Protein 1
Amino acid sequence: MTERLEQVMAYLDGELDAAARKAFEADMAADPELAAEVAAHRGLADSLKAAYDPVIDEPVPLRLTLAAQAANDAPRRGRLMTWAAMAASLVLGVLVGRMALAPQAPVAVGGQVPARTQLAQALDHGLAAEPGVVRIGLTFRDAGGRYCRTFQSGPDKLAGLACRDAKAWRIETATAWTLAATPTYRTAGSDTPPAVLAAVDGALSGQVFDAAQERAARDGGWKP
Amino acid sequence: MDRPEAAIVELLPRLRRLARALSRDAADADDLVQLTVERALVHRGQWRPGTRLDSWMFRIMKNAWIDEGRARTRRGAVISPEDAGLDAASDGSADMETRLEAQAVARAMARLPDDQRLAVTLVLVEGLSYKEAADVLEVPQGTLTSRLGRGRAALLAELQEGAQ
């Protein structure tokens, strides 16, 4: 690398002290070729910022938020998220991770589903067995009277159980899941991962909803 | 701050931006972020309170990306620069010209050797100082600036050629 390029970079990257900066600007004023070089490199830096800065304002995928929260979220409802379910989800996570050749560790509970995501839309409006990138499986009430639904989300690469608070859906349990891993035909809950089914078993109070109950609960806006 | 977990959530947008500049597409980039977060949580005892969490996470991402690159090579997957960058600036508000330019940038980035791409990304996308970027890459500052210079020259040549 030439000393000249090194100077141009250091100038643009803010690595020069005030005196060196001044001297470089004087050089630039006297040397149009140098000035043009600086302009070209400044243009490159601007293009890179323009290409990647929009990522900062994109919504963060739920699976990443959940992965980051995994360590500090103690299970909110300890009795529901049984040790057996956690162990099962761990085993499944390992299996899925191997199959996909990509580590997709199970993620932890307690996160709120951000509104306006595909997952929130499906939990609010979807019905079992409807096709889509986010699918709803089972719907039921837990012992506290909350509505709960199992889901499989292609975009989030998650399957899990979400229950409805006064304000929003909260993830009770979630585990790695990919669209490719599902059979082509299905019935409600048939392709729900065992870890999620175990969580349903733990949370379920009474029976899983039939289609009419599910539709009525949805049309009622999930009011308690 | 002795518990890094909450701060990691706040770092996610920057980790995603960095990963997007390194990866072939948005899905690969988010997989890289997830791997980075998982490794950081497993090794969170190694983070020393009082040091910068972002630099520490970037270093983990750098190592994860290099490991993944080796795994990709072993599996025989080839990254085609033509496929790169289709998700760059996926922000729906971006106009067509901005989008095309972002794709051209991503294709040029995909052609860079890994070490140059890392240097360019840390300094020009993430805005780290030379010292910070050298720390993340665990190389002397002279090595960083040399990679940065070669990377910049190659990008400029590629983009100017494409513009003609």
Protein 2
Amino acid sequence: MKTILEVDRSYFFIKGNLDKENISVIYDESLKHLKQVIRSVVTLDLSGVKSIDSSGVAFIEDFVSQAESRSLTVELTGISEKIEKALEIFSLKEEKKKSRVSETKEFFIEKIGISIYHGWNNVVEFFLLLGDTFIYSLQGIIDKKGMRKGEFLNQSMLIGMNALPIIALISFLIGFILALQSSAQLRQFGASIYVADLIAISMTREMGPIMTAIVLAGRSGSAFTSEIANMVVTEETDALSSMGLNPIKYVVVPKVHAITITAPMLTILSMIIGIAGSFVVGITYLGIAIEPFFQEVVNALIFKDIITGLVKSFVFAWIVVTVGAYYGFTVKGGSEGVGRSTTASVVTSIFLVVLADSILGLIFYFGQGVEM
Amino acid sequence: MSVVSVQHLKSGYNDKEVLKQISLEAEKEHITAILGASGCGKTTLLKNIIGLLPPWSGSIKIFGKETTIMEEPQFNQLRHNIGVLFQNGALLNSLTTAENVAIPLEQHTDLQPQLISRLVTMKLALVGLKEAADYLPSELSGGMRKRVALARAIALDPNLLFCDEPSAGLDPLISANLDRLICSLRDRLGMTVIMISHSVPSVERVSDKIIFLEEGQVVFVGSVKEAKSSGLQNVEIFFKEGKGTE
């Protein structure tokens, strides 16, 4: 039966079925008329209602609530036994009284405060995890108890060996492109040979460590997060704890050990292959002989450059593994939460790697004098 | 009057026959419990009735309509009047409690968002979880998850509710509370409930009628009292041994 709303100034009469199939037809209309009411009392006559369900009760309560927000009083009339029963079952009026405190609204300033509070808590949690990871990693070098057997080698293969081809390819292309771009400028001054210096220094100090870290964040960091997050969601970490195993030691520490060893190795490889990329440009495009090119590279590089790159690679590797673990352990929700955490982990890792690179760059620059 | 009527139902997986010529009826506003040992075909029967598994042969009538020959859109329309409480709740983990309950309302009605929000609060209040609206399923206990799943199952005020092992994995107290809740919903909303269970205490608490399955066949139909003195060895043992175990 079709539902009809008849309105005469402050008198609202509903005829038909007040159920989920019909309410949307009269809902907007009822609100429109309610806005035009000028008297303080509104009458909602339900004597024409044939049947009602929970949606009908929701409609009545919403109508009353909308009226009250306009300082109007609603008089319900024509309530049949059926309607009374439905109101008794579904009505939230009593519930509202009980939970009035929880319905307080947050103001703008409060929202900012809450965000800062949550942000600060996240930072504290991150550093607590970092601290735990650091301590357990040191412990784990001597005492292997509580760590998964064979996981160090497995992770070394996953993080190191499997990432080797992609890092090599990216580094070669970076070296190649940098050499090509810089040679266009240097040639104008007859200084093409300095391409070797430029690429050697930039690959060792900056591009090698940072490109390796970005690949690690995308490949390994995301894998860490999704693995740990899945374990959290499926309560595997709780199961580990219940067996007296520390999830950080069991899951994270082998990854930390593996990445601490493999990241510097990958970085050195990236440096060498990047220089090889520029070598191809130097020999083929710029016409520099092999021996002078290498002589220039050797002369340009000092030991500090390589150390700088290696220190960075350690720091970046720790960022990737800690951020990955942090987002894994703090996952919220199910499978969708795992996806969200993984994305956040990669984005945060890359941002923190670039931030750390800037800070380390400043430290090395001012710490070593301007020539650095 | 029968709300669900199954006649000569045969069903199974691949070429393995699970249900052999099953016939049963579930009366209006009654709680009918389908019992039997693990592997007897209870869940297969439920899947057949709610249309998740097509039967091999036989007839299934819900509200007097033959569902075995029904087109999917028609069956979906019928499903608006059917609620299903799955064994593990089957809540979507990425959605909050309130969002889970809102799914059927958003998908199957054109109610305004304000009304949907109000209805969600009503249904959560009915299962005593109004305060847990913003929680994710992973933040709820097993019993709470089941109650949220029940709130979702009754979101559209169905006339027929299926419960698959409502007591599974719950402690006796929570299980008893859930049973009381199902009974109260039946009484207050006038629902017909078909419950699959192998928990004897739960069945004793709520059921008006029991249907006992054994190796894909109905071996007993009647009340709990009648079952206990039915003279059928396995039925009597089931009630004797199952007493006190949830």
